[in-house]
Write a structure and sequence with these properties.
There is one protein chain. The chain is an alpha/beta fold. The chain has 2 domains: 170 residues, Rossmann fold; 159 residues, N-(1-d-carboxylethyl)-l-norvaline Dehydrogenase, domain 2 (Orthogonal Bundle), CATH 1.10.1040.10. 44% of the residues lie in helices and 16% in strands. It is built from 15 helices and 12 strands. An 8-stranded mixed beta sheet has the order 5-2-1-6-7-8-11-12. Strands 4-3-10-9 form a 4-stranded mixed beta sheet. Strand 11, helix 5 and strand 12 form a beta-alpha-beta unit. Helix 9 crosses helix 10 and helix 13 packs across helix 14. The longest helix has 20 residues. It is globular.
Length: 340
């Protein structure tokens, strides 16, 4: 099977490298600077599977038709990636990997529904430098059909990808995507202050803020009559349980969970984009809830504010301090917040 991965960032690089190592015919599509490094030095991976360099063919755009094209760019970059490679996207299957719930809707204007596959990536990776990625932790790769029932083709693709990753098929990929939306909901706070997940959530007050955002988001989605669907190793009860708890109790659980997620510093996907000077996916994470709330004429004050602040960070390149974030969201009384 001929496979192309469009996007040479954290997830795209990990997928291409380990699929190549598993013996598959894989080509990685990236920017010119990425391709130059990958061609000369290979992909350098470290983390939970050890350190190694894997040689992967790399190009700046598709050069032929592939059996499977995996879109591993951020949601906001899908249209551009499609347009740049559309010459060789007239046939074959396409698979999305993005956070949020909009990637499949975006591509549905370009592909027949029987060519579209969707997925949820539960493993974690960090883009360090061009051609260098840390594979922070293992996790499921959930594969499904966003616009039609599960079929033999989906199982066949799952079998191929399963040579390198733990792949699980889903009969309700969209319901699971909404659950994953909330798994990613706390990425916004490290991106506001420019710190790792571990450092950010060692501060219990920022854990409280994360729970406040989550409570508001889950309430909006519930009012929209959207049902969260459990992931294989992440039951929906974890999210529902957190939002039903008192804020302090839930914050304590978040603190213990996120500070022990990876031995290496873990930078969420939103912060990784900002650190590279690129637009983040905030509009498709917390912004998804803010947009939905606006459509339903519901309040989503906290998540709307987070989105606005992240766009300010993107514009200015200047992070907020933890103290500033706490004061803005009134997480603790102002007189108790030390000046940065």
């Amino acid at each position: 099977m001929k496979i192309a991965v469009i996007g040479a960032g954290a997830i795209g690089a990990v997928v291409a490298a380990y699929m190549k190592k598993a013996g598959e015919d894989v080509t990685l599509i990236g920017r010119a600077d990425q391709v130059d490094v990958i061609k000369t030095q290979g992909l350098r991976l470290s983390g939970v599977r050890g350190s190694e360099t894997i040689k992967v063919p790399a190009l700046t755009r598709l050069d032929k038709t592939y059996d499977l094209v995996i879109f591993a760019v951020k949601t906001q970059d899908i249209e551009e990636a499609y347009a740049y490679n559309s010459e060789f996207l007239e046939s074959g299957l396409v698979l999305t990997t993005q956070n949020g719930v909009q990637a499949d809707n975006i591509l549905s204007s370009h592909f027949e529904r029987d060519r579209q596959l969707s997925s949820i990536v539960m493993f974690g990776a960090t883009y360090i430098n061009t051609g260098e990625v840390v594979f922070n932790f293992e996790g499921d790769w959930v594969i499904g059909r966003p616009l039609m029932p599960l079929d033999p083709t989906t199982h066949a693709i799952a079998g191929v990808l399963g040579k390198a990753f733990k792949v699980v098929t889903s009969t309700d990929i969209m319901g699971q995507k909404y659950l994953k939306l909330f798994v990613n909901f706390n990425n916004c706070i490290p991106a506001l202050i420019g710190k790792s997940m571990q450092e950010t959530f060692s501060d219990i007050d920022l854990c409280r803020l994360s729970i406040m955002l989550l409570k508001e988001g889950v309430d909006v989605v519930a009012r929209a009559n959207i049902e969260l669907v459990s992931l294989p190793d992440f039951p929906k009860e974890r999210i529902y349980g957190l939002v039903k708890m008192p804020v302090d109790q839930a914050a304590g659980i978040l603190n213990k969970t996120l500070t022990t997620l990876s031995k290496e510093p873990l930078y969420g996907s939103i912060l990784q984009s900002i650190m590279r000077g690129r637009a983040s996916e905030i509009d498709f994470i917390n912004g998804e809830v803010a947009h939905l709330a606006d459509h339903l004429k519901l309040p989503a004050t906290l998540n709307g504010k987070i989105v606005d602040m992240l766009h300010e960070v993107e514009r200015t390149g200047k992070f907020f301090s933890a103290g500033e974030v706490k004061r803005i969201f009134n997480v603790i009384p102002e007189e108790q917040v030390p000046f940065p």
